[in-house]
Structure formats: C-alpha cells, structure tokens
Hints:
By secondary structure, the chain is an alpha+beta fold. 52% of the residues lie in helices and 15% in strands. It has seven helices and five strands. The chain has helices spanning 5-13, 35-50, 64-85, 92-99, 106-113, 120-143, 160-165, and strands at residues 2-3, 23-25, 54-61, 153-157, 171-178. The protein is elongated.
Amino acid sequence: RLLGNAAVAGANALGADIQEKDEIAFDPLYTDFKSEQYAKAARYAEIFKKYPKMKLTFTQYCNPKEAVAAYRELKLKTEFYRQNSAKDTLNEIDRTDIAAIKSDDSAYVAFTAAHAEIPDAELEKELMEKTDARNAELLKTLRAEPGVTEKNVTVKNAPYSEMLRYKGDAVYKVEMDVE
C-alpha cells in the first residue's frame, strides 16, 4: 500500500486538488452541507473515474458537548422564528434570518423565558444523531458519483471518547489509501 504523500501525489497527478491532511469543514448543528462542501466531496469522487483502486475514509470529528450551548440557542431561535413566521419548512434564507436574531431582542428574551430549558444530555443525544444523519448524507452524495462503491469509500464518526476530547472546528478528516 502507498499512504500519505504518495497517495496524495497520485491523486493530484490525476487532476485532484487535495492535500495530505485534507478536511471538509461542516456546521455540527446541521445535517446537510453547503454547496462548497458538496463540491469538495464531488472532487474526491472524481478520483475514482481515473483511479478506481483509490480508497477514501472520511472520519467525522466534532465535540458534541462543546456544541450544546450553540445548539440550544439555535433550537430556541428556530422555534421563535417559526412561531413568528408561521413557517414549517425552512430554507437557507430562513437560516440566515434565524442567525440574525439578536440574543438580547426583547421579544426573543421573553420567548426564551417562557420555554423550559432542554437538558444538556438530550441536546447532546440529538447532536450525536445528527452525526449519523450527516454521515448518511455524505455517503449518499459520494455514492451518487460514478465509480464510488461500498468498498472504496467509508464514512464514519471518530470514536466517541476521541470526539469528546476533540478541540477544533467540526471537520471530516480524509484519509487516502492506494493499493
């Protein structure tokens, strides 16, 4: 097997623009990706057209305990937004509007005071469910590309204990193998 620099050099020779320790950043509060993240994943899938023996492993790293406070705020702002907009289905524009809600807005403060606090353990459990959903979304996106199979792409979470120790932005770390 060739690993690390050799795999990267081979992939780049085939037209990929990737680094040895390449990553795909994501927002741990959501299960879907932005267009740039889908494009980066598709760039990896392109490798298989020219080099079918390449194997890729995407390992998700995020710390669910560190994301709990932000997730709680997102859930409250989302519910506040839904209540005020009467929308059930939200899109990217709605997400932007939700993010723009000020934490000290008097109507939002009154709304949060009237709602019971969700326990951290429940929010952490939901965040871990999002990791599985995000993995499934990435895998579905990759497998839609020609040449990507069950045997040459793996998408997984880092071990839970490692995730709890992880300090940094939420990312998929990408490892390449060539046989």
